[in-house]
Amino acid sequence: DTGVSQDPRHKITKRGQNVTFRCDPISEHNRLYWYRQTLGQGPEFLTYFQNEAQLEKSRLLSDRFSAERPKGSFSTLEIQRTEQGDSAMYLCASSSTTSGSYNEQFFGPGTRLTVL
Amino acid sequence: GNSVTQMEGPVTLSEEAFLTINCTYTATGYPSLFWYVQYPGEGLQLLLKATKADDKGSNKGFEATYRKETTSFHLEKGSVQVSDSAVYFCARSSSGYSTLTFGKGTMLLVSP
Questions:
Q1: For A107, which of B43, B51, B105 is closest by C-beta distance?
Q2: Which of A11, A60, B49, B87 has the fewest Cβ atoms surrounding its Cβ within 10 A?
């Protein structure tokens, strides 16, 4: 297993455009998380899934953000009508509730979004 | 709500010096505690963890002890190396062991 992967690694877009990011978790991990990290800050939780179900959303996740995990495997995070304040690193993590380390989250390399 | 506070950096040390990075957390529930490390240009990696009071997590010469009485989880290493230069994040789990709340990170710079 190669770990959590994210695509693209970098995205530059103009304000008002829509963007979509993809995350592929570690296989067999049933939980998938999205975080956002801005410069000089720690990651902030956005949302998480257990299998296909979106179980929790942060108040940071405005109506312009939507996340899906339709088959319980990969996930997408879409940002509509991007704003300059959306510029950040978007991190994906996964974990397994069935392993002994059920609360240990493994992170991907992130997608760096720049909104011009 | 849940929060994590860690000392501000950068922490600048010479090789073989002793390292301490302080971390305190809000005492709601019975969280698990973590230290993650982010090397330049790389993603977050779990360094060590502790799941209950008095547990000691350790890895690669780093240690941290879960202190419930002081709500602390300080990271220590007896002799740092240049290769330890990175940003270190302290984190706590939510009460439901689902999400993580991170501190702001502490940059460590080790010079030869």
A1: B43
A2: A60
